[in-house]
């Protein structure tokens, strides 16, 4: 099964759904022709260079031997081509060798990369996070000697947070960085789940590691961020000796076999402070927020890939008499078609949420945009990755028995997708972030503003005879989201906790419906079947997803009461 | 992680939810003590003999070499112990060596077997289906020489339907059985996806195969059912020469690695007709209906196993400050607890649906019971297996990053569970069966009768102050199901097709809520925390699942209109 990057859908989402006026404001020189050219170039690379390596990456996987990791066959060459063609440096600052383009455009490019080969895409994705952290908080030396190498892609980045006892709770971490008496630090400890923590595809790897300093206070305030490089970096930028850290094993995982997940051991590794002492977690959140949005895009990507494969299969596979296909292609069976069209609608809703968040991230001087970006980030991450798992599963199902056979390839997407709701903050953590920091902390201002903006779209939909049904369902959905938001603002922090996951789902369902509505309006009245199909996607989504919003809002307030006193022994007697 | 069979939950479901008066009617001698003793014995076998083999079965898998399949290490010995202890013969007719017990009790036993080791459980599950077919349609010779060997478990059975071009559409099959001139047939063709089609755990394997006869009409009416044995059976019951069929490969699958999925080649294999010529599909449906209910039970089973593992992990794993646990066990985090309690509620709803269907299957002379059994069978299969996938995924999620590591074991459940919505008729096929044959064909009588019975429970719930909230939500859910049913009965067959899957989900959601309500009533006022927890499960389910019923019913009627004209090219431009 070949993959074909959805350049037209991406361009439409960027230009129409993602607030074109905002994109134009941040990047006045970014015309449609440039956007199209960048997307087309990236699509060619994704389709031709990365997608063909995906299955081999799964079968062969990254390997570990003698303290070193080897990337799967073909990955190192593809990575070097990726960097040489400039795909790593699209949105980085021109001062550090980047191309200074829109983050939203970069996200669109990365969606194609992740769809073509998610295990591969993780490597530059984490480099992007490291670029973001050094750009914001790096020292002058780090910006001069390390950042340009990460921007060019000659070196890659790794994000080193988790320890066995410290996953979602980073306050529990134990790695320690002792001052070396020369202005630097000696870093010791063990980190787990370090994606692309070691490999042979680039000449150096910059590790951004959180650790404690010896005299630091306990808890999160004692945590600082450090940079330590696989090969030390001399003052002239050339590489010095190997630093004293190494991978000690890689994990045997359910999916993304092509991406090495390392256990890293640091033994007095030479390290430098990044940013301020004790500010490790806030600095790391800079990386994590960028990474969270990228993970949301991975959800869209794996869903798109799984969908394309299932759609192609549904047109080839013939079984029985199909209502809508004389030759019996299963695409002609209403139940199969419903599955596929609903999958596509959810993909486009998730893509729109992610790209809108990216466009907002481009508005660096607009506080309202920043507030909305922060509001949408946990939704982009969690809702889109849930869609990734759901659509990968639906795609497998469309294949029938063949879907369960590994050779078919549908199962790989189902396995690969499953990491997405977990890493970069589980989806449960995202929902707590949404409810606590993004809704309750600002008194609901950002969410209320978003719901108010939906009214504009609702009125436009209502005025269009073909789309009025979508308008009324979106109206009911937005009202449910508003009710749930007001409830959240009135209750105690404790009461909000148990409602967090269904609240995030409700928010994603409604916001996704809003953006599909905008897209449908852009296609209304067009002669182009592709543009017209955007109305169908919004209609199917409205009837199958937005109809559930009222019930979701109704059920929210009760969760806590019933749960508080459950005895676990009573559940497994 | 050890597994502990949920004997108390199973006994409660059998005695309370599954209409105890019906069970007593069919089996007057089956007292509670017998039920408890059978469940306890099976639980010990499942926990101690089968569960420990589950991981090895996944890692090592069944293997194929030189035209023969070898079961994973330990499976053959476990199978022999299973048969010797009588677990294979619980519900079979005493005339054929069975114990003549309730099918519902047998299902409860099989749930424990499937939870302990689903790859193993598939083998006796298919033997049960073969027993059912020969019991109903076998010749006198087949009943004398083959059936007792299947009942005792000395031989196993295989169900041979699918061919590469004939999956959901069995009318397309091409295997052929030519009369041999001596009253028998010579069977030739290739069958795929034959579960336990060959192995070394029993001395003989009875294949029930559908095929055409040379002069048969095209389509389903030309299909007959045949029995062909791996080793031919002489008139004195001893084994003759090897028959001319063999496995040519086994599949490399996403999960259930311990269960060999064979490609079988039949080359003029000696075969006997089962039942009547041209009645192959109706006869096969006897096997398939029994198997479909068993697959629903597999959904409950894999969910129970995944849930137990996640619940245990949630009590051991400590992260951060937990609202409900001083030491930070993640079970004390409301979002995690919500996930687990909702999982358990769905498991118990699915278990109740399956066991109720089993109890109804025991009422062999009651037409109303038979109609309800037939109505519930596609729901038991599809809804319970969707729960299986969902809960296995939720269980993996509770483990965080560890869930994605294969050593943890949660990923195996996620992989194993994924076959369940596919085999024995995909869940899409189940929904078409429900809508077409089970609801529309009888003018909605069986579904209306079921909804009427719910009113009794609703009134009992409403009369109980603690459970009145469940009663009102169930009332709204039942009304939504009734509305959806009336809509289904009014529209064309075509219009019903696109609504089939959401209708089945709605029906399962509401019927599951009904049975949880019955269970909650049985526990109301009890001093026993386990029995009281049944109220909590019903309350959480009502607030998180039944609240969606109205929206599901509202969205049903629209699916077809929007889907009919979708151009697949517009979805992948």
TrEMBL record, chains A, B:
PROSITE patterns attached here?
Answer: ACYL_COA_DH_1
InterPro entries named among the record's database cross-references: Acyl-CoA_dh-like_C_dom, Acyl-CoA_DH_CS, Acyl-CoA_Oxase/DH_mid-dom, Acyl-CoA_Oxase/DH_mid-dom_sf, AcylCo_DH-like_C, AcylCo_DH/oxidase_C, AcylCoA_DH/ox_N, AcylCoA_DH/ox_N_sf
Note whether Ribosomal protein occurs among the keywords.
no
Name the coenzymes or cofactors required.
Answer: FAD
Short name of one Pfam family: Acyl-CoA_dh_M
Q: Can you give the residue ranges of the Acyl-CoA dehydrogenase/oxidase C-terminal domain? A: 278-432
Instruction: Output the Gene Ontology terms for molecular function.
Output: oxidoreductase activity
Q: Where is the Acyl-CoA dehydrogenase/oxidase N-terminal domain?
A: 37-154
Give start and end of each Acetyl-CoA dehydrogenase-like C-terminal domain.
451-556
Q: Which family does it belong to?
A: Belongs to the acyl-CoA dehydrogenase family.
Please report the name of this protein according to its UniProt entry: Acyl-CoA dehydrogenase
